[in-house]
Design goal:
heterodimer, A: mainly alpha, 5 helices, B: mainly alpha, 77% helix, 1% strand
């Protein structure tokens, strides 16, 4: 483990910021560029930076579950989104959507458009994170 | 089976893959769950076949309720249903074999999830009605097959795995390039929509090179004459059961896609068939003949069987070539396609069965080099019987299944006066018999040698594997003895492929499905004003709040 102080200090800044940014991309993704896939990549970059600077043990403490289960849970969510429509007699993956009126100030509300596809996107997010973090973890273990 | 249920062919294997991932520490549970899902899969495939085969109907479901040429369609017609049924049987039998014969190492890791995901890819490519989705299905299938390639890893196997991965990556790149170009040329990737364009003779001349290029892509996957070099080198390094699975499914998916694309989609356009048909007929002859010559020259069971795959692909190509050749009467075209479909089904079952037999021969004799083994007839008489039946049906002796497939293809060739291909097909049959008899006489009949002679007390457990083989042989026998029934279904499938009007109507719709009304009306009445309305209601809500 050859980590510099600069990387460690930087990581403390980068990791939470990237995770928040990943959340932002994920929520933005329904109507504008973004979505689960990119958010997953950003989140996994954050996790990998953490691993680079604090080592894999620290990453294990951060993610107590094996990345393989991330993939399985993500696939379950994605499949479940499709099955939700199917069980109501609609074609697979038919999307349900609506608006959430979120009060931002007393006078204004923010209409957040939710769609059932967001659960699918969350699945994609988990799969991408699981795959990237898992692969890099295995590969770098082999190098060490 | 209702329309939307066809999505279960994707859902079930995927669910099986997920569940077995969660259970990856509990081997026994993995097996039971996997078997349960595969049986359910088989039942649904038969139900789908029973629904579409009598009428030649098409089950269509539009993913996400998006209108056909824009959204992704999945459709099950008779051809898909036949392929699904056969594939699900093959998967189940291979699964039984693997579950019983594979040791802890081979079944360890993530073998079971990958097995189910491979089936997901295979079944998805059978039901998809969208070209790009076909690519995705192929990728899933290939990814899973890369992973399965490393089962019970030996150094030799890994070396060949590199070759396999590289070649398939090249194929995938070409495939996706083709799709991009086709989308640019035709403006659609929906199979039914492209079929409609071809039927109306609206294919631009500039799209012809791309369509011809697709022959390379699918030809590589199916292992046709100039592109088959990767197959004999890779398959024989695999454990037999995996080899059987790949032989029974992967190359046959390629053959299925070739029928779907070149016969159904572009078969009605003479400017395409003028290019493709001669190439198909030429490669058919060369593929089958060179393939079988290779098989005769080999000396290990798995090598003989792998090269044989290529030779059998030649017959399928022959059927496709005759089906789109110019100057062939309509009924002979239908006969040729029906023959090709029958042959694919027969080949899935029989080839896989022979591979599994080869696996059990290794269990008994410790090797599959024909020089080093022998006398298995006394040691394993039932295995010998089952092998003999499968081998003879591959060679095409009546009344076994291979005979009827070849009979239909040969008579279609005769009636359309393509004598050269017919000559090679007959010659190939003879050599096939020769190569099968080679395995028989060296492996089963010759003086006993091999592991079973050196350690006669050690009988391997082969009961589970025998069940898998026996099931496949029963299916193969039923295809031979009940050929009339199977052929009738193939003929229904062929009819709707030669004249795809029904398929196009079913997918693109002529207001015959109530589904479409919902889809068409919803966006026009709601999509535009929706945002304003919601803002208004929000504003109202606010003002009420005040």
């Amino acid at each position: 483990m050859c980590t510099s102080v600069i990387l460690k200090v930087g990581a403390r800044l980068i990791v939470p910021l990237s995770l928040v940014f990943a959340m932002y991309i994920y929520f933005k993704g329904h109507q504008t560029p973004g979505g689960g896939f990119v958010a997953g990549l950003v989140a996994s970059v954050a996790l990998i930076v953490h691993r680079m600077s604090f080592g894999s043990d620290s990453l294990r403490r951060m993610l107590p579950i094996s990345e393989r289960y991330f993939i399985a849970v993500g696939l379950t969510l994605a499949l479940g989104t499709g099955m939700g429509a199917y069980l109501q007699g609609l074609p697979f993956f038919t999307s349900a959507h609506g608006y959430l009126h979120l009060p931002t100030t007393i006078e204004h509300t923010y209409d957040f458009e939710w769609a059932s596809v967001m659960a699918f996107d969350l699945g994609v997010f988990l799969v991408v994170t699981g795959v990237v973090v898992g692969m890099i973890d295995v590969l770098s273990k082999e190098i060490q | 089976m209702t329309q939307h249920q066809i999505v279960l062919f994707v859902v079930l294997p995927m669910a099986a893959g997920i569940v077995t991932t969660f259970l990856h520490r509990y081997r026994q549970a993995q097996r039971w769950v996997g078997a349960g899902f595969l049986i359910a899969n088989m039942v649904f495939a038969f139900k789908a076949l029973a629904t579409v085969a009598p009428t030649g109907g098409v089950l269509v479901s539009q993913m996400g309720n998006w209108l056909a040429p824009f959204g992704i369609t999945i459709a099950v017609d008779t051809l898909s249903a036949l392929m699904l049924s056969m594939a699900s049987i093959v998967c189940f039998c291979v699964f039984i074999y693997c579950a019983f014969q594979f040791d802890r190492d081979q079944q360890g890791g993530f073998f079971h999830p990958m097995f189910h995901l491979l089936i997901l890819g295979v079944q998805w490519s059978f039901i998809t009605g969208d070209f790009f989705n076909l690519f995705v299905a192929f990728e899933i299938m290939l990814m899973a097959s890369y992973a399965i390639f490393c089962v019970g890893t030996s150094k030799k196997q890994m070396k060949q795995a590199y070759k396999y991965v590289l070649l398939n990556l090249l194929g995938s790149t070409m495939f996706v390039t083709c799709l991009g170009l086709i989308y640019g040329q035709l403006g659609t990737l929906n199979m039914a929509d492209i079929t409609r364009l071809a039927m109306d003779d609206k294919l631009p001349t500039s799209s012809l090179p791309v369509i011809a290029m697709m022959l390379l892509v699918f030809g590589g996957k199916t292992a046709i004459f100039p592109l088959w070099y990767w197959l004999p080198d890779t398959y024989h390094t695999l454990p037999s059961a995996i080899g059987g699975l790949f032989a029974g499914l992967l190359t046959k998916v390629g053959a299925y896609v070739m029928i779907r694309v070149f016969v159904m989609m572009f078969g009605t356009s003479t400017q395409v068939t003028d290019i493709i048909a001669p190439i198909l007929l030429l490669t058919a002859g060369i593929t089958m003949f060179l393939g079988v010559l290779g098989a005769v020259s080999m000396h290990t069971v798995r090598r003989i069987l792998s090269i044989h795959i290529i030779s059998q692909v030649g017959y399928m190509l022959m059927g496709m070539g005759l089906a789109i050749a110019t100057g062939v009467a309509q009924d002979i075209k239908e006969m040729a396609v029906a023959g090709a479909i029958f042959f694919i089904m027969h080949n899935m079952v029989v080839k896989c069965c022979l591979f599994l037999c080869g696996g059990l021969m290794v269990e008994h004799a410790g090797d599959d080099d024909l020089e080093k083994i022998g006398g298995l007839l006394k040691r394993a008489p039932w295995l010998a019987t089952l092998f003999m039946i499968a081998a003879l049906s591959l060679a095409g002796l009546p009344p076994l299944s291979g005979f009827f497939g070849k009979w239909v293809l040969l008579s279609a060739g005769f009636q359309s006066e393509h004598y050269v291909v017919v000559f090679f097909a007959v010659l190939t049959s003879l050599f096939t018999l020769l190569s099968m008899l080679k395995i028989w006489s060296y492996g089963f009949w010759s003086p006993a040698q091999g592991k079973h002679v050196d350690q006669p007390k050690k009988r391997p457990m082969t009961v589970g594997g025998m069940w898998g083989i026996a099931l496949l042989v029963i299916v193969a026998l039923s295809m031979g003895l009940g050929a009339q029934k199977y052929y009738a279904m193939c003929a229904t499938a062929a009819k709707s492929l030669i004249d795809p009007t029904n398929y196009v109507k079913a997918v693109l719709g002529e207001q015959n499905t109530p589904e479409y009304k919902v889809v068409i009306n919803e966006p026009t009445s709601q999509a535009q004003p929706m945002h304003h309305e919601s803002h208004e209601t929000a504003a109202n809500h606010d003002s009420h709040g005040h």
